[in-house]
Amino acid sequence: MYWARSQQLCCVVTVNGTTGEGLSLSIQERKQLAEEWMCQGKDKLDHVIIHVGALSLLESQELARHAAAIGASGIAVIAPSFFKPTNKDELLGFLQKVASEAPAVPFYYYHIPALTGVKIRVEELLDGIREQIPTFQGVKFSDTDLLDLAQCINKNEREQFMFLYGVDEQLLSALAIGANGAVGSTYNYLGRKTNLMLQAFAKPDLALARKYQFLTGEFLSFVIKLGFGVAQTKAVMTFVSGIPMGPPRLPLVSASEEFIAKAKAKLESIVWPDGD
User: Where are the beta strands (DSSP E) in 112-258?
Assistant: First the structure.
């Protein structure tokens, strides 16, 4: 899901990202998933963005070529997280080498320093980035540093880039400073509530938008205290949708029955403004 500049809600899926445990999958598994999403999403989804980041540059390039071959709407790349880039030029060099393998596909940088440990500011990275990566389209900004995001948006005067915010409990704050999109795990089970928040923000009815954001935050605050990660997210997705998401891959372990019971009770106890 993202919130376009025209304030039109569009359905976008990012494949093989964090919630999808992309970095825990083999290259062949990642290709298979990408192909299946492209097949199942045809005529249903507005955009399918394939995450092709990997610790190995060669593997990332292979995945980029594959994404281009199957007609992906875009590719995204996370920073390498074992041997890490230590400055803008090193990071940009890696991203450019991947993007060049899919020269006709929009390219996104997936910024999530809490997991990668790469804390190079996006504001710095953006300076002259189109000269190095002509297909650069924007950033999935999964960080709580709203000052960095604000500086990026302030420099984006011609609105040539997309800033897709990825910290779900702070989405309203990001929208207020100009983020034009959102990609996050909670939208898999709270997508309708988030869409209602976006509609309230557009009216603008900020009091109603805040109510939706506060209630989302109430649920997330509750489950975070219980221990909330990708495995627990999949458990919530399963009991909300009724579609089994399967177990996570080691070293992650499945959510406990205690967690599932408490999370389900909490979610069911929330009274949303639309009456659900």
Answer: 136-141, 162-165, 181-182
Q: What share of the chain is helix, strand, coil (3-state, %, to 5)?
A: 50, 15, 40
Beta strands in 115-250 (DSSP E): 136-141, 162-165, 181-182
CA distance 37 to 16: 10
Closest CA to 88 of 105, 63, 109, 108: 109
Eight-class DSSP state of 83? S
Angle between helices 230-241 and 187-202 in degrees, nearest 10: 80
Per-residue confidence (pLDDT) for residue 3, from 0 to 100: 54
Tell me if residue 178 falls in helix, strand or coil: coil
Can you give the pTM of this predicted structure? Answer: 0.93
- pLDDT for 75-125, tens place per residue? 999 999 999 999 999 999 999 999 999 999 999 999 999 999 999 999 999
Please give the positions annotated as active site.
110, 140
